[in-house]
Amino acid sequence: MDEKNLLAEQFEANRNHLRAVAYRMLGSGSEAEDAVQEAWLRLSRADTAEVGNLGGWLTTVVARICLDALRARKTRREEPLGPHVPEPVVSQDNSDHEAAMADSVGAALLVVLDTLAPAERLAFVLHDMFAMPFEDIAPVVGRSVVATRQLASRARRRVQGTAPAAEADIARDRRVVDAFLNAARSGDFAALLEVLDPDIVVRADPVAVRMGSLAEIRGAAAVAEVFRGRAQAARPALVDGAMAVAVFIGSQIRIVLKLTLTNDRIAAIEAIAEPGRLGDFDVEILGA
After folding, report:
1. What is the pTM of this model?
2. In the chain, which end has fewer C-beta atoms inside a 10 angstrom radius, N or C?
3. From the first residue on, what is the mean pLDDT of each consecutive set of 10 residues in the chain (288 residues)?
4. CB 148 within 8 A of CB 154
5. Of 94, 115, 136, which residue constitutes the final position of a domain?
6. Residue at a domain's end among 74, 90, 115
7. Residue 128 forms part of a structural domain
């Protein structure tokens, strides 16, 4: 058997698994089939001589394809087109198998999964549904192992129906962030001190430093002085499901401020402007 036929045989042996992963990720039978087909095309073009676990390699490829598709879907949905409705799986060549697969997932679960941020959904599906280790998921979502665990944990709470508590936390954090931005924009030094932890630390990546935006700053007074009169182009946002600030230049997000909040005060700010990292974030700009 030549190499291409062997690869085709191995791919077919993994097809049902790959389809199941893609369907849980995308909630669409047709999109799942497209993702699996794209995985075959990538396999046929790749050098897999050094791949020890082809099934794991293919699962990772399908996961990346699905993540890109979810992010593209989320971007398209910025316009008010209404919610995405998961479609049932229908196929003439394997209808019994796919009907069983659809039943095992359930329309209700697919609707809940569709409320998750793309990276959250991927982490939850791969770990909780397919037992993939977080060490293998982390490179797909571009996060550390710890951050990937947090993505799956947030998704799990939402799926299990404990999202209201998380939403209450977000609402509380939103009030702190709004107070911070309002004080910064108006130049109210005293109000800034009210929302900053006395021992706050601000750190910035090299791109943010070169942009002249921020550097390492310590202490509430120093941080308040830096932000006073600024933040005109900043908007409250959810970044990977957590409260943050997105800074626009023109129509593009150029800086993300990831926040650590403690006791209703901002205890740390991480300024991220490196384009590769910004592109990996799931950002939802919050309205007034």
Report:
1. 0.55
2. C
3. 78 93 91 94 85 90 95 63 46 46 61 87 93 93 87 84 62 93 96 96 92 84 93 88 88 91 93 85 78
4. no
5. 115
6. 115
7. no
